[in-house]
Amino acid sequence: MATIITSCNNDDDDFTNPEINSISLASNDSAVVSGYKQNMYIVRGKGFSGVQNIYFNDVDTYFNPTYVTDEVIFVTIDESTPYDYSPESIRIITNGGEAEYSFDVLQPSPTITSFTPNVGSAGVEVTIFGEVFNNLESVYFGDAEATIVSFSDTEIVVNAPDIVDPVQITVTTSAGSVVSEDFFGGLSYYIYDDALNSDWWSGGWGETNDFANTEHVNGGSYALKTQINGWSAFQVGNGGASIDASDYSVLQFDVYAESDGNILVSMNYDYSTNVQVMSLTAGQWYTLTFSLADFNVSDIQAFAIQEFSGSGNTLYIDNLGFL
Fold first, then answer.
1. The domain containing residue 61 runs over which residues?
2. Start and end of every IPT/TIG domain (predicted)?
């Protein structure tokens, strides 16, 4: 590996021109020609006495003088150091001169922090949040590849592929792959997805419903809009074959409120005992997930959302069903 040496005018003959001969990863002292930010490395050579500055990709990097001898430097690559830089190198400046050595700072593997929505039909836009999405290569939902719409280093927008069962999302960049901890739904059973399930009926009180609304949609083409008076409720019921609650574990749906307020979620006409109360902030989508065990039901007969602030509200509901 070539070292570029530049002399400085200095009257002090105690300092010689620095020279870099090798770099090793400090954790196991293995020779490397590339590395990652926030890892410590051992730089070997000569003429390091009187070191003034160390640069990785032109970023002035902190070093502890205690870990510097004339032939060895221990130094950690700073978190702010760029990758995909040209030329990639480490540069050491001492009282005796300057040495530069080719060294690649590698792109870290990507990370996924969250994605939204959690469920949706084929083609729905899903936004994935995380870090280091640079040089994106692919996004998979299980074994099905998604269509990439756009991406930045912290956000990816894709069109979801057609899936049947809940799956994890895999993001692959030139630096590696990461798999999401959470699953993207294809709900196992839909009550509402662009239309009310034909086995279900609608029959709440004090509400007006639009089952093909386009004002606020969180997957597919339509959402269910329900305008609910204070303390009234939107309700749907199963008119088809009996549904065994033990076949599913979770009730899940997306909801968007036009006004701040509370809702009460209930099942099987129990409006007071085994219920869940949630607070909603206007103007944003929520994905609400409830354990079916919390509703203490053995079969699934009905589902209701009651306005629970007393002032009324307009809600948009999408991707309603069971996992």
1. 3-105
2. 110-175
CB 149 within 8 A of CB 139: no
Residue 132's nearest CA partner among 108, 102, 113 is 108
Q: Is the pLDDT of residue 7 over 50?
A: no
Closest by Cα among 76, 71, 69 to 90: 76
Return all residues near 299 (Cβ < 8 A) that are at least 6 apart: 242, 243, 244, 245, 268
Question: Tokens in use for 151?
Answer: 């991406």
Whichever domain contains 250, its CATH number is 2.60.120.430
List of E strands, 8-96: 19-25, 30-31, 34-35, 40-46, 51-56, 59-61, 72-76, 89-94
Mean pLDDT of 301-322: 96
**Statement to judge: residues 237 and 302 lie in one domain:** yes
- Given a cut of 60, is residue 3 above it in pLDDT? no
User: Pick from 80, 87, 6, 79: which is nearest to 47 by CA?
Assistant: 6
- CA separation for the pair 87, 102 (Å, rounded): 8
The tokens describing 69, both together, are 């001898």
Q: Using alpha carbons, list the distances in angstroms from residue 260 to 57, 95, 284, 314.
A: 50, 65, 10, 10
Query: What pTM was computed for the model?
Result: 0.56
pLDDT for 10 equals 47
- Co-location of 237 and 313 in the same domain: yes
pLDDT of amino acid 85? 87
In eight-state DSSP terms, residue 268 is: T
